[in-house]
Backbone:
């Protein structure tokens, strides 16, 4: 049973007394007999894909002849971590079928078959099977996941950055399984009230934060898989640009969809990279026989996660996923001209610059158009807290304060600021606020009205030098305390 980023099984077998041509014919005939789809053939080998089934998303089987040996490799095309022995069985079936056919073909028949195949074979000097290709091939062990190499350079840097930030968060005291909302916000999570109130940088920082170790590991595994597939095609500059472009767009989508959701994680950008790859798979940039297997693998991953995110209690930010995926499709198609002409740097960097410019304009429009009633509300509530503090100063005056000073404090600080507080709370009626916030505002307004009436009675009692209003004042204070308790109880339950 193979385990890894992309489980595989490799076995070398000798050609024995067969020529390269004879071995190639027998191996291809064996693959055909097994019902595999042969997509790429050359003078030194071929690539085939196994049939789809309930237990398999199709595996890629490579046969590469080098001297007197043949290298046989079966590798999962999906992003599964365990192959449950499928890859070993593929190679075993290929060898068994190969040996069965070997006894049934004469050298003359093999030579005739080779002549039939020959016009469709890629010449050895143009054969990418005989060249080192930077891709998942470079991930040979656990450590290699984190090491930048040709064709797999930006991906490990992004992985290391995500891991480093998570480690720093944990060291600073953030819970490694279930970080508190306050901790996520402090580290740069995306939250509309703060993001729209000058915290634009949260559109980027939230892409490198994770809500616990399992969230981090799941996202990093998906990033390794798509990065190892996609980065060799895009190159460093386009891959890095696509990651940040789709990540920021995913953050904006989340911002537009959610009023009070705290959003964090690399999955928006990762979905974006899947979107880029889906766009490429709809063109002839990728070898035809590989497209079906890869489309199925990526389609299953995207479809499952989108459907899972639709569950009410999933805790998944589907808006960010969809924003990343759709922006990835657009970016993928935008990259196609430069992918067809990889040597034209002006086209490549011009495309990247144009995409970033469009994103900047889009972000600016969102900032200008998107309402931020919660952010405005919280800013005004700070003003409310300041006015309340000023109005309550009367209770902190020394016991030997003169009546003139008490009356001044009650009237010019207390009554004035309670009236202003009521006006401020009334201004919230036109805002689009959550039901719970509206309920709290009603309680706060009642609290302020009671305070105002209490202060007015207190002013009369002092100015008339009488205690006949004391029972009413005590009644107001009891009702005020009940509201304070109710507001405090709700806040503790959040």
Residues:
């Amino acid at each position: 049973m193979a385990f890894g980023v992309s489980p595989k099984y490799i076995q070398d077998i000798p050609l024995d007394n067969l020529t390269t041509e004879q071995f190639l014919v027998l191996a291809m005939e064996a693959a055909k007999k097994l019902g595999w789809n042969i997509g790429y053939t050359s003078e030194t080998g071929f690539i085939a894909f196994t049939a789809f089934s309930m237990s398999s998303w199709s595996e890629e089987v490579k046969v590469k002849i080098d001297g007197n040996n043949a290298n046989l490799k079966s590798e999962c095309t999906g992003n599964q971590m365990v192959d449950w022995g499928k890859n070993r069985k593929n190679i075993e079936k290929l060898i068994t079928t190969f040996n069965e056919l070997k006894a049934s073909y004469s050298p003359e028949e093999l030579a005739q078959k080779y002549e039939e195949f020959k016009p469709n074979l890629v010449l050895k000097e143009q054969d990418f099977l005989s060249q080192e290709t930077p891709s998942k091939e470079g991930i040979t062990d656990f450590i290699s996941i984190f090491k930048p190499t040709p064709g797999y350079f930006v991906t490990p840097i992004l992985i290391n950055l995500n891991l480093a930030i998570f480690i720093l968060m944990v060291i600073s005291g953030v819970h490694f399984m279930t970080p508190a909302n306050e901790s996520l916000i402090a580290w740069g999570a995306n939250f509309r009230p703060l993001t729209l109130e000058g915290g634009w940088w949260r559109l980027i920082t939230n892409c490198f934060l994770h809500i616990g170790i399992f969230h981090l590991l799941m996202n990093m595994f998906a990033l390794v898989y798509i990065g190892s597939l996609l980065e060799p095609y895009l190159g460093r500059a386009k891959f890095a640009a696509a990651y940040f472009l789709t990540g920021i767009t995913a953050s904006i989508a989340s911002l537009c969809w959610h009023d009070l959701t705290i959003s964090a994680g690399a999955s928006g950008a990762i979905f974006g990279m899947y979107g880029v790859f889906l766009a490429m798979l709809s063109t002839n940039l990728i070898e035809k026989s590989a497209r079906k297997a890869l489309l199925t693998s990526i389609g299953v991953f995207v479809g499952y996660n989108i459907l899972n995110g639709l569950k009410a209690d999933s805790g998944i930010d589907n808006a960010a996923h969809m924003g990343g995926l759709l922006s990835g499709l657009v970016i993928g198609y935008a990259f196609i001209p430069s992918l067809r002409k990889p040597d034209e740097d002006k086209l490549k960097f011009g495309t990247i610059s144009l995409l970033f410019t469009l994103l900047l304009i889009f972000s600016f429009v969102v900032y200008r158009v998107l309402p931020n009633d919660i952010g405005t509300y919280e800013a005004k509530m700070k003003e409310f807290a300041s006015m309340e503090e000023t109005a309550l100063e009367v209770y902190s005056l020394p016991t030997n304060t003169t009546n003139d000073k008490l009356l001044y404090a009650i009237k010019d600080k207390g009554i004035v600021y309670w009236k202003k507080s009521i006006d401020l709370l009334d201004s919230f009626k036109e805002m689009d606020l959550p039901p719970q916030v509206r309920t709290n505002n009603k309680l706060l307004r009642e609290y302020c009205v009671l305070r105002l009436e209490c202060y007015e009675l207190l002013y009369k009692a002092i100015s008339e030098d009488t205690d006949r209003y004391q029972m009413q004042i005590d009644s107001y204070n009891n009702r005020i305390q009940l509201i304070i308790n109710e507001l405090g109880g709700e806040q503790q339950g959040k």
